[in-house]
Specification:
Layout lengths: L1 H19 L10 H9 L6 E3 L17 E10 L6 E9 L5 E6 L10 H7 L5 E6 L18 H16 L8 E7 L1 H13 L3 E7 L4 E3 H17 L2 H8 L3 H6 L11 E2 L3 E3 L1 H4 L5 E7 L7 H10 L4 E5 L10 H11 L13
Parallel strand pairs: 4-5, 4-6, 6-7, 7-11, 11-12
Antiparallel strand pairs: 1-2, 2-3, 3-5, 8-10, 9-10
Helix pairs in contact: 1-6, 4-5
Length: 341
């Protein structure tokens, strides 16, 4: 029986590696290289558009919390200059900032409940991001391919050029990442280190099983087989090219450690001293109970929240928002009626 299980795992591993491994070499980037490249980013290479109020000088006047609105950040790239769209809500001078990163084929609209929930808290700002080729962000057209290192670079420049601005010294960043966005959140801790106060992972742990990945890729191929690609892209607000590229060998071009079970991201969180929270589905095929126990052993301070009957990823509701809120340690708004007596 053990030999049979081993053979099944190895077969799944081979099939998944054929999708995610570059054809000529194992990896194109290591964590160290990602950090080095991020450090080389220069502010003049990218900038908020003129309509982006976050680039304005900081004043002593506190800004009233604003409802969610879309803004754009310009990525200056010689090969494919593009705008990254992000939705922002709350206090523009807040010290507590929640950055939301969506999953593989999701957009920033998946965090609308998060924006609405946190409007009742003071001293906070919520930002949700559309990766290139998704939602309201620009497509890269024929200039290159969609891949993990591209998303990581874009988000890093957005944080550096539009969020960590104005000379504020007490900003506390929390990164909320769904699935693929959670993996990117782990790698961002290597780039921004102590500037990140906490990360919250939505149904993604430190290991993704080959069998789970094989099932995920297979379901994507079946769905694409039964529905026209352009129709699906329109429905998801995702570039047709992005849907194709996520299934190519070079899409996951960041460093990871492989074993017989799957892809391991432990290295990305080594040395991170901030808070780590995990919300996971009780019926998830990606973040299984085995993987939850593994990450608990690796990060003893980990806080977890299980959503019964949920699959992958976990949908946001008030209870999940309460858990995210607990990781940020925000305070409710003090209203005038609360000051009476």
């Amino acid at each position: 029986m053990k030999k049979k299980i081993f053979n099944v795992l190895m077969e799944a591993k081979v099939k998944v590696i054929q999708w995610i491994r570059p054809s000529n070499h194992y990896f194109t980037a290591t964590v160290a290289q990602v950090v080095q490249e991020a450090a080389a980013l220069k502010a003049p290479q990218s900038m908020p558009l003129e309509s982006n109020l976050e680039a304005s000088p900081v004043t002593s006047i506190r800004v009233v919390s604003i409802a969610p609105e879309t803004r754009y950040f310009q990525i200056r790239d010689e090969q494919h200059p593009r705008k990254i769209a992000y939705t922002v809500s709350g206090d523009m001078n807040a010290e507590n900032i929640l950055i939301c990163l969506p999953g593989l084929l999701e957009t920033k609209t998946s965090f609308s409940i998060i924006h609405d929930y946190f409007l009742k808290f003071e001293n906070y700002k919520v930002i949700s991001v559309d990766f290139s080729g998704r939602g309201e962000s620009d497509y890269i057209d024929e200039y290159g391919a969609y891949k993990m290192s591209l998303y990581l670079s874009d988000v890093s420049e957005l944080i550096q050029g539009a969020i960590l601005v104005g000379g504020k010294t007490h900003q506390r960043l929390t990164i909320l990442g769904t699935s693929m966005g959670g993996v990117l959140a782990m790698y961002l801790t290597k780039i921004f280190d102590k500037k990140i106060n906490a990360i919250v992972l939505n149904d993604i742990a430190l290991t993704v099983n080959w069998t789970a990945l094989y099932t995920l890729y297979k379901s994507m191929k079946n769905e694409l087989g039964f529905k026209e690609v352009r129709e699906l892209a329109k429905e998801l607000s995702v570039d047709v090219k992005a849907i194709a590229d996520v299934q190519l060998p070079g899409h996951f071009d960041l460093s990871y450690r492989a074993d017989v079970w799957g892809m391991n991201f432990h290295e990305a969180l080594e040395g991170f001293k901030g808070k780590v929270g995990l919300v996971y589905g009780g019926e998830s095929k990606i973040c299984t109970e085995q993987r939850v126990q593994e990450i608990k052993a690796f990060i003893p301070r980990l806080n977890t929240f299980e959503v019964l009957n949920a699959g992958h990823p976990v949908p946001f509701d008030n209870l999940v928002c309460d858990f995210i809120h607990s990781q940020m340690s925000l305070r409710p708004i003090t209203r005038p009626k609360d000051l009476v007596n």
